């Protein structure tokens, strides 16, 4: 990776342990047959490759009074004792019966947790490093972490070391681990189609299994407003898909708490001023161009009313807009303790604002659409910041070709920009402008792409042999992003080391035009796992070569383990490939 | 569409005549608009009155002639009709809803002309369904029990509502498929699917009026089928004891197919794609368990087209002993009159790895002669059991290894095409063979999810390469429902040639599919083909492709399939259904 988020204390720790490793006979970490996903930064298994039984009375000793850590400890204890994972690969040395049995080690009795800063909150940049030592001469393993959140990462790693019936665990194992990027997220759009609370919790649970730490909840958009807000109950009552497709304050609380129990922050996004058609059901007066056909036949591309069906933008010139909007923000801030607030601001479409008479007269008096947006941002951004929140916007707010604000009104101290267009180019534009960036490049990280367009009556399909648009899978961001495409993307590509430090991390995104609960798991997993590893420990080996080759086998194994944990991840290879390691490889440069 | 035998055509003309005589205002039904949707769209569905609905009586019953499979289907549909309580996402806009329980519909009366006609290729699936306005009896008339099952499905889709059930009434349906063979292929060798997955798939096929489950049972990766005469093939060649199909499983699947009007067509792929046979009989398989494409060799010397090597050896007499045992067992297990014998992707390098074949070749023999020997030794044996043999097109069209047409008697052979779109379909019918179309550019459901090979250097770059660009797999991109819906399987053929195209099959190869993704990979994309092959993809009057109104109908149908327990993927946000027309493009 071009850059590392390793703090100085971690570097010291790393050097210290590297020295320790060199003294005994050095075991190549790449030769390990222990599969942990995402791959730890450093994992050493003493050369004898010994295994111990996990004692039936195995316990996790955590002497701390910390509700979320306690919840994680009891969850992992149950998982570890009941999972009995059987690696799919029968040739896995872990399961091979032909090798001589290793010298017996005493059954492992306990895992002891040591935490230095128990009260570190789960915020951006929190220390997630941990060390895990499973010795071969004592029945006690140690997990040491700066924070409870790092301990949760270590518990996940430990859980992946345990397998078999009766449960076995490799001993003589040392792990030092620390994420390269602090922001490893997943966006889910719950407006275009609705997902139940159980779906969201299962997703957060799967994220924690992949050591991801940010659930970016794109709650509202033009198609529906599913969030029930105490100060503005009309928005969901009228703007949701129905009473059975809403999130109550209790649902949100449950999700936020569940996130904390899993070391996953829940960042809310209330997209505005665009993508607000659903607000018009309750407040038609604050939304321009609501409920109109998105792109009338007689108009040109630049006169579209919305980027896609579902029109409506908040009207920055109507004072009532801010009254409603501030109620919304105030409620959301109360419901979500997370210090980041995502305010959207993508795809402000000129044609929509231009339908409004007050905006028309503002424009005919020499005003510009960018000024209209600036007015909106000036009225809302300071308010959000005053509530102790850092504001995330989509890059459009600054980089849009037509409607954008001057960078002077977005203080980089309180602003983070999330990029989705033009791959590495826009990432560079954002950090060059002095802003922190979250990378969700549509070319690499959009999980919904490639399943065909969702528009009806689309004449591009009325032909025998596909046109270019059709032949790549038909949707605007096609083709489908394969796990390899995701795994191999370097989110700091082309940046100096200095600039790269402004890239906080990345998020894969599932927009829900063509996704809903029936396809949720298969769209997300294991592709989100590919990003999870690339952002945790990188996508290259010690030689700098991309490690997708060995990643294939590990991801395959991890996919099977996720499935057995109740996550409907899609297969990436026939079972035969897992059973016959190496036989499904390509050894030619191109095929 | 060119397909339609003489009798349905006469009925069609007759029906149209009657309709025009008797009906004052004929409104075309089911074309969207009023929210009464049937998928696949019937050939003729007309309101005899203004669109209206009637109550379905709480004591509604289906009166069916006694027939083992039809009675079972009638019971199943009765239960579905009474318990489904479908709630359309768009409330049907009907002029009139009769809520008087005195005129509620009490009985659907089924009449079948020929009860004994078996479920086989070309069986008459025509039915007429008449639901008079304000009458207590509806009539379903069909030539065969299989046509009656199609009519029951249509009737079930005309019922909705909660708590009271409503049924569209004042409605007349005449229906008959354009293509006789409407199939779905699932590969159970590369990954295993449980019996319930297969049954659910067959059930969903019947919802979509499809009639052939092409079961690609075996391949190089695993041999999941337990055969009484050759038990070792599965014992040693399957993925494990829990990943096998017993003879009882097969019986269950075949019977389930019959109660749903779906034929179960077995494929035992050979002589290629037989690596898994080598676990039990290494001596009859060449190049087994080899690395598929060694680094030092070029593509023409690969041992298989993908990882998983092994071909049956045509020069070893024992090959035929085993294969004939297999065929014997298969024809005992599967009553279906078609037998799919595979014969795709014979890879020269694999046969050349064998020493007896090497000496055969060095004595002037050719690989094509080897294949002819294999086909000449097996096809007559299969035909002897009164089976029509289906082969993949390769057996005739492969550039390197193929047989002469004289080895493939046209009356006993059907070729299934998967390469080169309409071109190969034309080559097959021009050679005088019946064709089943599974063009990979249109009908392969597995494509576009990235390659499954490990260590593939095409991905080691920042900018995706051109192959990564289309979704990365050999047949990428993903085939969207629109691509499938709009494909004309008789494109470029004369009317005479088109008659040789008996239908099509979408195919799910399982390199990157298993039970976790089965439903989302199959549905609703398979429904797209189901409608195109049943009633066509064009508007009857204008000839314009009807994907536009198909979008709304397919969306509604997808939700109904989900509520019937099928994990079909969404094609639009719910908002589009709630706001009809608003998600269209006008450009």
UniProtKB/TrEMBL annotation, chain A:
Keyword Signal carried by entry: yes
InterPro entries: Beta_hexosaminidase_sua/sub, GH, Glyco_hydro_20_cat, Hex-like_dom2, HEX_eukaryotic_N
Catalytic residues of the enzyme: 347 (proton donor)
Annotated EC: 3.2.1.52
Recorded catalytic activity of this chain's protein: Hydrolysis of terminal non-reducing N-acetyl-D-hexosamine residues in N-acetyl-beta-D-hexosaminides
Keyword Glycoprotein carried by entry: yes
Top-rank EC class of the record's enzyme: hydrolase
GO term, biological process aspect, one: glycosaminoglycan metabolic process
Domain Glycoside hydrolase family 20 catalytic stretches: 181-538
Signal peptide residue numbers: 1-28
Assigned GO CC terms: membrane
Span of domain Beta-hexosaminidase eukaryotic type N-terminal: 36-161
Superkingdom field: Eukaryota
Record's keyword terms, sorted: Glycoprotein, Glycosidase, Hydrolase, Signal
GO molecular function terms attached to this record: beta-N-acetylhexosaminidase activity
Family named by the database record: Belongs to the glycosyl hydrolase 20 family.
The protein, known as: Beta-hexosaminidase
Organism field: Citrus sinensis (Sweet orange)
């Amino acid at each position: 990776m071009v850059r590392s988020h390793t703090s100085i204390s971690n570097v010291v720790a790393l050097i210290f342990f590297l020295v320790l490793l060199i003294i005994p006979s050095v075991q190549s970490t790449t030769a390990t047959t222990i599969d942990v996903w995402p791959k730890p930064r450093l994992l050493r298994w003493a050369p004898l490759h010994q295994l111990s039984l996990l004692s039936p009375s195995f316990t996790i000793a955590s002497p701390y009074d910390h509700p979320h850590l306690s919840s994680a400890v009891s969850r992992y204890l149950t998982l570890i004792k009941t999972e009995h994972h059987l690696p799919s690969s029968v040739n896995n040395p872990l399961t091979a019966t032909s090798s001589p049995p290793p010298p017996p080690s005493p059954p492992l009795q306990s895992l002891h947790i040591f935490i230095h800063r128990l009260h570190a909150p789960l915020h951006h940049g929190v220390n997630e490093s941990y060390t895990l030592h499973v010795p071969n001469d004592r029945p006690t393993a140690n997990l040491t972490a700066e924070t409870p959140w790092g301990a949760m990462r270590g518990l996940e790693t430990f859980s992946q070391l345990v397998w078999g019936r009766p449960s076995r665990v490799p001993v003589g194992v040392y792990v030092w681990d620390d994420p390269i990027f602090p922001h490893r997220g997943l966006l889910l759009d719950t407006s275009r189609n609705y997902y139940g609370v159980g779906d969201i919790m299962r997703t957060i649970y799967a994220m924690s299994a992949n050591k991801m730490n940010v659930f970016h909840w794109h709650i509202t958009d033009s198609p529906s407003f599913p969030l029930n807000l105490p100060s503005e109950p009309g928005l969901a009552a009228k703007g949701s898909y129905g009473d059975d497709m809403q999130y109550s304050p209790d649902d949100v609380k449950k999700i936020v708490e569940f996130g904390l129990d899993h070391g996953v922050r829940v960042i809310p996004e209330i997209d505005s001023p665009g993508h607000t058609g659903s607000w018009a059901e309750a407040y038609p007066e604050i939304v321009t161009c609501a409920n109109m056909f998105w792109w009338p036949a007689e108009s040109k591309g630049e006169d579209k009313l919305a980027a896609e069906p579902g029109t409506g933008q908040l009207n920055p010139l109507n004072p009532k807009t801010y009254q409603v909007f501030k109620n919304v923000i105030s409620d959301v801030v109360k419901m979500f303790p997370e210090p980041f607030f995502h305010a959207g601001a993508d795809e402000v479409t000129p044609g929509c604002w231009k339908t409004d008479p007050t905006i028309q007269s503002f424009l005919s008096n020499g005003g510009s659409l960018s000024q209209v947006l600036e007015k909106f941002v000036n009225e809302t951004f300071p308010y959000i910041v005053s509530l102790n929140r850092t504001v995330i916007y989509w890059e459009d707010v600054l980089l849009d070709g037509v409607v954008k604000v001057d960078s002077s009104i977005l203080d980089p101290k309180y602003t983070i920009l999330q990029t989705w267009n033009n791959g590495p180019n826009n990432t560079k534009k954002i950090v060059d402008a002095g802003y922190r960036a979250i990378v969700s490049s549509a070319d690499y990280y959009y999980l919904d792409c490639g399943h065909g367009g969702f528009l009806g009556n689309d004449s591009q399909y009325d032909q025998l042999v596909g046109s270019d648009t059709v032949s790549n899978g038909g949707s605007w961001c096609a083709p489908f992003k394969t796990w390899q495409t995701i795994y191999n993307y370097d989110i700091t590509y082309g940046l100096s080391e200095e600039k790269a430090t402004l890239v906080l991390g990345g998020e894969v995104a599932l927009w829900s035009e063509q996704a809903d609960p029936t396809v949720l798991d298969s769209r997300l997993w294991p592709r989100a796992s590919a990003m999870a590893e690339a952002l945790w420990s990188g996508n290259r080996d010690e030689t700098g070569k991309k490690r997708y080759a060995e990643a294939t086998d590990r991801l395959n194994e991890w996919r099977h383990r996720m499935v057995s944990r109740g996550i409907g991840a899609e297969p990436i290879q026939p079972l035969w490939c897992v059973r016959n390691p190496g036989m499904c490889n390509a050894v030619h440069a191109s095929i | 569409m060119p397909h339609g035998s003489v009798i349905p055509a006469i009925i069609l003309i007759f029906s149209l005549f009657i309709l025009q005589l008797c009906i004052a205002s004929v409104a075309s039904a089911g074309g969207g608009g009023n929210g009464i949707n049937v998928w696949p769209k019937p050939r003729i569905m007309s309101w005899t009155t203004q669109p209206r609905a009637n109550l379905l009586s709480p004591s509604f019953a289906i009166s069916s002639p006694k027939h083992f499979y039809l009675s079972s289907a009638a019971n199943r549909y009765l239960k579905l009709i009474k318990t489904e309580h479908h709630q359309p996402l768009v409330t049907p806009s009907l002029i009139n809803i009769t809520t008087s329980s005195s005129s509620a519909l009490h009985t659907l009366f089924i009449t079948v002309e020929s009860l004994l006609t078996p479920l086989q290729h070309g069986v008459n699936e025509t039915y007429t369904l008449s639901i008079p306005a304000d009458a207590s009896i509806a009539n379903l008339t069909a030539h065969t029990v299989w046509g009656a099952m199609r009519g029951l499905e249509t009737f079930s889709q005309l019922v909705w509502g909660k708590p009271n059930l409503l049924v569209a009434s004042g409605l007349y349906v005449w229906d008959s498929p354009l293509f006789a063979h409407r199939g779905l292929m699932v590969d159970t060798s590369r990954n295993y699917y449980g019996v319930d997955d297969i049954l659910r798939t067959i059930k969903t096929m019947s919802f979509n009026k499809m009639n052939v489950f092409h079961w690609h049972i075996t391949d190089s990766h695993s041999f999941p089928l337990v055969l009484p005469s050759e038990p070792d093939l599965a014992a040693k060649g399957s993925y494990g004891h829990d990943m096998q199909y017993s003879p009882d499983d097969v019986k269950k699947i075949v019977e389930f197919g019959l109660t749903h009007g779906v034929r179960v067509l077995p494929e035992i792929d050979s002589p290629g794609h037989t690596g898994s046979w080598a676990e039990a009989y290494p001596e009859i398989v060449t190049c087994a368990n080899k690395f598929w494409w060694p680094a030092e060799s070029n593509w023409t010397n690969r041992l298989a087209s993908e990882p998983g090597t092994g071909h049956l050896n045509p020069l070893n007499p024992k090959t035929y002993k085993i294969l004939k045992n297999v065929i014997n067992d298969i024809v005992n297990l599967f009553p279906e009159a078609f037998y799919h014998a595979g014969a795709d992707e014979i890879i020269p390098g694999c046969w050349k790895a064998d020493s007896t074949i090497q000496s055969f070749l060095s004595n002037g023999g050719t690989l094509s002669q080897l294949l002819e020997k294999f086909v000449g030794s097996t096809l007559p044996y299969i035909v002897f059991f009164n089976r029509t043999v289906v082969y993949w097109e390769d057996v005739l069209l492969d550039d390197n290894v193929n047989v002469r047409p004289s080895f493939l008697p046209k009356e006993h052979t059907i070729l299934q095409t998967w390469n080169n779109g309409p071109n190969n379909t034309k080559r097959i019918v021009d050679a005088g063979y019946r064709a089943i179309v599974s063009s990979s550019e249109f009908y392969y459901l597995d494509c576009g999810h990235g390659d499954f090979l490990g260590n593939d250097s095409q991905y080691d770059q920042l900018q995706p390469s051109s192959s990564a660009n289309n979704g990365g797999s050999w047949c990428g991109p993903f085939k969207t429902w629109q691509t499938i819906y709009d494909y004309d399987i008789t494109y470029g053929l004369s009317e005479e040639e088109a008659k040789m195209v008996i239908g099509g099959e979408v195919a799910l190869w399982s390199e990157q599919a298993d039970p976790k993704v089965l439903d989302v990979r199959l549905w609703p994309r398979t429904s797209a083909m189901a409608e195109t092959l049943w009633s066509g993809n064009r508007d009857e009057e204008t000839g314009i492709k009807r994907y536009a109104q198909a979008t709304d109908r397919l969306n509604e149908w997808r939700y109904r399939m989900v509520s019937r327990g099928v994990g079909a993927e969404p094609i639009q946000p719910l908002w589009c259904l709630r706001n009809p027309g608003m998600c269209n493009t006008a450009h």
